[in-house]
Amino acid sequence: MAEMWISMGPQHPMTHGLWTLKVKVDGETVVDTEPDLGYIHRGVEKICEARDFTQITTYCDRLCYASANTWSHSYIYAAEDLLEVEVPERAEYIRLVAIEIQRIASHLMWLGAYGPDIGNLSVMVWCLREREMMMDLLQELGGSRLHYNFPRVGGVKRDLPHGFAQRARAKLKLFLNRIQEYEALFDESTVFLVRSQGVGYAKPEEMVNHGVTGPNLRAGGVNYDIRWAHPYSVYSELDWEPPVERSSIKGADCYDRYRVRVEEMRVSASLALQALDKMPGGADTHHEPGDPMILAKAPTRAPEGTTGAHHFEDSRGESMFYIAGGGEGRGKQPYRVSIRSPIFITIPFAAKCMIGYKVADIPAIMGSFDPCIGETDR
């Protein structure tokens, strides 16, 4: 049979967003792929050069709609490195709670969307049910439903609301029980196992060479987590280890990538619960906005020639911000902002993992890498 190119996207259920995957097929077998990005490029990095350090936070929220809090925090840590701000310990614990709850919500969004990719429609309703609990908690913190604008240079916008700790503990403990239902729904499904096991192998050494990070890399047996390898915030004060799957000799398949995210949700729930228990001053106390316990005074200008950078464990891998100060000539605005998106690195690699498999395997393989195109086309 003659080989031919087919186009999947930009509007296609497989893509999880606006991008195109060009696939060369021989019958039903994939022999080559070519991802095409750039459909929703918004020029966030350039826009940031015309905003002050606080205003930039709202743009970072919009880099990934499913993980807004992790992206805004990633930026804030880089800005604090540039402005040399010492953050109050209580604010760091509050940040950790917000970040890990957001990580759970992001993974639930992925798991819910991955269900239809492999023929399981029920799981999407289940995952969105628990995701709503996490969204309720995040809404309490930031005041918004999707884009929270919660962190500030030097701390957080507001303290934990009254009764938040009690509600968070109850929902996180309930969620830990619900995870077992997800495992039963997936691990006891013959259809899911056939669609995911032995499909989309990715060798760990190849992922390292291509710059793939996060859950996708840990699914291949590589124990690399920014929170663990290069601790920031108060992660080093808590008792935890990053989940790492033991992949086969062929590498990590779609099932391994599913398993590592399920375990990561357990770890995130545990981290949030520990942070609430160890909160300086107690999780049930409350400070008014601007209190030194939750927000340190920060400079509004960065000297010319100074730089700040921070790499952060986002829900999808290693995100990074590089910020250059502009001095008096730029006022309160940075001279340059550069963003590293983990999925921008991952998508070209994931596309090559499809070669040798069938066209029907493409949604299962691509979906298992958890693509988010908002951060990719930043």
Give an overview in words.
The chain is of the alpha+beta class. The protein contains 15 helices and eight strands. A three-stranded antiparallel sheet has the order 1-2-3. It has a three-stranded antiparallel sheet with strand order 6-7-8. A two-stranded antiparallel sheet has the order 4-5. A hairpin with a 2-residue loop joins strand 4 and strand 5 (155-156). It starts with a strand and ends with a helix.
SSE-based structural type: alpha+beta
Low-confidence stretches: none
The major sheet is characterized as: 3 strands, antiparallel
Helical element count? 15
Provide a short characterization of the protein structure.
The protein is of the alpha+beta class and 378 residues long.
Name a few traits of the molecule:
alpha+beta; globular; 378 residues; three-stranded antiparallel beta sheet; 15 helices
List the helices and strands and how they pair.
Layout: E1 3-8, E2 20-26, E3 29-36, H1 44-48, H2 56-61, H3 68-83, H4 89-117, H5 122-142, E4 151-152, E5 155-156, H6 164-187, H7 190-196, H8 204-210, H9 215-218, H10 226-229, H11 254-277, E6 307-314, E7 317-324, H12 327-330, E8 336-340, H13 342-352, H14 362-368, H15 373-376
Antiparallel strand pairs: 1-2, 2-3, 4-5, 6-7, 7-8
